[in-house]
Amino acid sequence: MTRLVVISNRVSIPEPGKSEAGGLAVAITGALDEYGGLWFGWDGEVSETAVSELTTVQRENITYATLPLPKEDYENYYLGFSNEVLWPVFHFNLGAMDFQLEYAKAYQRVNERFAGALSTLLEGGELIWVHDYHLLPLGKALRKEGVKDPMGFYLHIPFPSYDLLRAMPGYRGLLDDLLHYDLLGFQTDNDLHAFRQAVIETFGAEIAGDTIECNGRQVRTGVYPVGIDVDELIAEAEHSRDNEQARQLEEDLGERDLIIGADRLDYSKGLVQRFNAIEALLTQFEHRRQKTIFMQIASPSRSAIPEYDDLRRQLEEMAGHINGTYADLDWMPVHYLNQTFPREALIGLFRSARVGLVTPLRDGMNLVCKEFVAAQDPEDPGVLVLSELAGAASELSGALQVNPYDVDAIAAAIEQALNMPLDERQERYRQMLGVLRRNSLLEWRRRFMEHLSQQNSDAD
Ligand code: GDG
């Protein structure tokens, strides 16, 4: 069987004998295990020197090859271009874009260095699968190194509309980079459509079925919505009562209704609007006071970027303001936890909650909403309130869908969710669980790998 080579910005090498924690990492490890393979990327370390030496570690069937990032590259490639240019633009937030030439140069340089280091490890006759926005130019850089094998690229985040994209300096080069892959995968039809539009407007590309013909190259495209491992999640949720932290929280809740949010602390997740919606709920639906608790888990993320640090402070203030205004001696409406929770406790909270509040301003897919649904008790399920601007909205029609900027609409949807009769909750849950099973994580991986292995390499 052909060896699989996966490249992602971050690679975490599992401790011997321990399994990977994150769902996506599990899916990728599973594919590498099945095909035998190599996982290449940044080890998460920042080195003080400019040298970055390759380390390889073997774990059963999988070789992990990692590099540290020199401080300058961490700042300019990772924080700078990836997260202060690409991330905001691709999440429709031009106001947060901070373009600097140094960032763009470092982005190219690191991608070329990755290509150079990786090409020494390739044996030929492999399938190459590149992940996400940090590595848009990697395919072209590998071709320059003489790599001829089929190469696929998967974008985990949204693809912006053409008019937004062209506000980003250097966008033409990045679009051209993407056209050097053999297969391009997106989360939703919307993202694929935006990408097609961008290459039509920029290069006059032609579309023939699922193939884009442009500048003498042919690139296959597809939509592969990321999913979750439903059975595993259900099993975890059923055992969540075994978790001391989850059990304690449930006990503390008593008769009160829990509204839960859990996100990386990121401005794309709509947390400010969500906090305002909680205040609107307490103002407009006074009977919810005393009876409702909103818990927001916001795991720390990219805190070296000013926007992220500002957001953390803003949310602390907002939580303080809401609690200061509405709390009683025996009740605090907002529980804001700026920390990463253990997974079992998180799943336990999802199961205890009456409402899952997932309101990103933009999201490639969003796995939290899928995990929330799968964690519910089928006999007495909670209700998902979901942003119509999350990729998952196109699949989860059983959710109460809201515009994440419309604070009053979010408050009204929470009220509707808390009043929803059991049979309607069960019906919505069944509908969504069916979709989650059809578009599972395994299915995502299987379809992408199948299409990638059908590609003939495109060496130019
Ligand atoms: C990107 C795209 C796309 C969250 N807090 C804690 C915790 N989490 C876990 C969740 C979930 C994961 O992190 C977050 O995944 P999302 O998909 O919601 O969001 P991003 O991190 O932005 O992921 C996104 C995804 O890639 C996959 O393609 O869906 O659109 O932006 O699994 O449960 N886990 C633990 N503690 C926490 O406090 N243990």
Automatic annotation (TrEMBL):
Gene Ontology process terms (BP): trehalose biosynthetic process
Family: Belongs to the glycosyltransferase 20 family.
Pfam families, A to Z: Glyco_transf_20
Example GO molecular function: alpha,alpha-trehalose-phosphate synthase (UDP-forming) activity
CDD domains membership: GT20_TPS
Protein's name according to its UniProt entry: Trehalose-6-phosphate synthase
SUPFAM superfamilies: UDP-Glycosyltransferase/glycogen phosphorylase
